[in-house]
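Progress note, project year one: complex with zinc ion.
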Amino acid sequence: MAILALETSCDETSAALVSGGVVLANVVATQIKMHAEYGGVVPELATREHLRNLLPVAREALQRAGLAVSQVQAVAATQGPGLPSALLVGLKAAQACAFVLDRPFLGVHHHEAHLYSPWVSGQPPRADFGALQPNVSLIVSGGHTMLVLVSGELQHRVLGGTLDDAAGECFDKVAKLLSLPYPGGPVLDKLAQKGNPRAFDFPRPMLHDTSEDFSFSGLKTSVRYYLRDHPELLVDDERLCDLCASVQAAIVDVLVGKTVKAALRHRVRCVTASGGVTCNRELRRRLDEQCRLHGLVLRLAEPAFCTDNAGMVGVLAERKLLAGCPFTGLDEEFKPSWPLG
Ligand code: KG4
Ligand code: ZN
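Model obtained:
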C-alpha cells in the first residue's frame, strides 16, 4: 500500500509517500523566510503559500518516490489542529485527490502524528513500530508544548499541556525582545553556545508543580522586565550570549525536569520527543543526560521529522488503516482546535 500524505497545518507545505512503514519521499516547502519579515506566521499569507506550493510539492514527492499518482492506494492529510485556512488547503486537496482516484481517505490528528515521528529513522526513513514501547512523549514546538502518555500503538492519553505560551513561542518572543530575527529558537540556540547558563537566574515556571502542565509566559515577562531595567545589555555581545544561555537553561530545565518526572511517575521506561524545539542542542543533550541517569530509553525525532512534515502523517495513517480505523468522509471539515483524545 502506498499512501499519499499532505500536511499544511501551519507554515510548512509538505507531501510524503509512505509504504510499508518506509517514507519513500518527504518533501517540505518551508515558509519561514516569508514570515520572518513579519516576525511571526501570518495565517493569510501561509494559506496563499500552501495554495501555490502544494501541487509542486506533491508532484515532487511522487517523482522522488518513483510512483505515478495511479499507484496511490490511500490518501491522508492533517485534519487539525492548526491554522483554519491553512488546514483547509491540505485537507480539501487530499479529499479531492481521494475522490478522483476513488481511494480511501484518512484525516489525521497533527499531534498524534508527532507521537510516532521519534520512531522514524534511517535512510530511507523507516517507522520501527516493532520497537515501540510505552513512553512519555514530549511534543514541543512554536504552537504546542504537551506531555502525552503513549501506552501502546494508537493508545495515548494527554498528561498536560501549556497553560499559556508554547516553549517555542517563548524562545521566539524572547528573541524578539533581543531584536533577533524570527524564528528566534535556532538563533538563541546558537548564541547560547557562547554564553554562561548560570549568568542570570530566570524562573523555572511550574517545574516543581505536581501537575504535568507548563507555563512559559512568566519567564518571557521576567526577561522583558530585566531588559527594561538593563537596556545596556542589548549592546553587549557577551552579556547577550549569557542571557540567551540563561533563558535557554530555564526553558530546558522545565521541559526535561517535567518530562523525566512524568516518565517515572507513570512507570514507563522510555521517553520520546518531537516538534521544532526538539532541534535545540541543549534540550537534546539534557534529555540524553537525564534519561541515562534515570535508566530511561530516549528516542528523539531526527531533525527532518522534528519539524512539521507529511512523512509522520503518512506513517500514522498507514498504521491506522492497517488497524482497521474507519475512513474519514470526503465532506468532513478541518478541526482547528481538535483536542488529542
Ligand atoms: O514544529 P515547528 O517547525 O512548527 C510549529 O510550531 O508547529 O516548530 C517551530 C518552533 C519555533 O518556535 C522555533 O523557534 C523552534 O521551533 N525551534 C527551536 C530550534 N529550532 C526550531 N527552538 C529552540 N532551539 C532550536 N534549535
Ligand atoms: Zn507540529
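Residues 10, 141-143, 168, 171-172, 183-186, 189, 275-277, 279-280, 307-308 surround KG4 (ligand 1) (CB under 6 Å).
The first strand starts at residue 2 and ends at 7.
No further modelling is planned for this target in the current period.
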